[in-house]
Input
Amino acid sequence: MREIGAFQSSTSKKRYWIIIGALAVAALLFTAGLLAYGNPMEFGSTGYWLIAQRRMNAVIAMAIVAVCQATATVAFQTVTNNRILTPSIMGFESLYVAIHTSTVYFLGAAGLINAHTLQMFVIQLVLMIGLSLVLYTWLLAGNNPDMHAMLLVGIVLGGGLGAVSTFMQRMLTPSEFDVLTARLFGSVNNADPEYYPLAIPLVIVAAGLLIFNSRALNVLSLGRDVSMNLGVDHKKHAIYTLVLVAILIAVSTALVGPMTFLGFLVATLAYQAADTYDHRYVFPMAMLLGYCILSGAYFVMNHIFYAQGVVSIIIELVGGLTFLIVILRKGRL
Output
């Protein structure tokens, strides 16, 4: 029998909580493995805890990225009413690449290394969030808001920034290009613990507000006309949600670098695993899946195959294949 509520039946609800429990256990196991596996020092010694603390910095970065990418992508797809789109379409990653490329172009490789500071992190956040606010207020705050025009402008800006970055990269020396390429790959090794006192509160507030706004997002997912008929101010909630999405994606990108398909992969799997469209249940599922994918991939690649540099490439490859499969199955964007 179909029940009134977030789930179609009690079986679906039980299945959801079983999956959540399994993911929570997997997350704990992967975390323990990342902290303890392969630690050369004797358990309980000072050296052991120093190594574990250093590894904990990477684990914290994984948790931040998982929360950012999961909540931002699910919310962005709801507002745009499209399961294919991700926040990267707004040009955040292209801006990140342009910032680092211009730093190497004008200041050299040493300038990029010296610019790895909290001040540079703040500058990147301000530029990314500022770009999104300009787009939202320009194209959505008027009397005739146009979501499609905003997305199109985001694509054009991203393409323009990408073209400028490519031009500057062709002017670099091989050694400078090598340093830049290493920085442009998304990796938790790019995260500096110095950033956490700023990044963690931003993520907690932005993600918490999105989760708190789950019921409004449930209505927004029905479409603009339906949500307005139900008494929800679609434009106000859309801009509010997109600002929070911009903060989350800006933090994730500035912290570890581009993760183009991670959010799409996590959101797609979350809807399949949760078997509900209620954001109160989709958000936790997506965050746990994101953390398990990141931590599991880093544990397997670092400690089993000893291939530290290919983790983000593998995640992006799987996410890209999932993207193609979804498009081919639907037959349309």
About this structure: The two ends are 34 Å apart (CA to CA). The mean pLDDT is 86. The chain is about 75% helix and 0% strand.
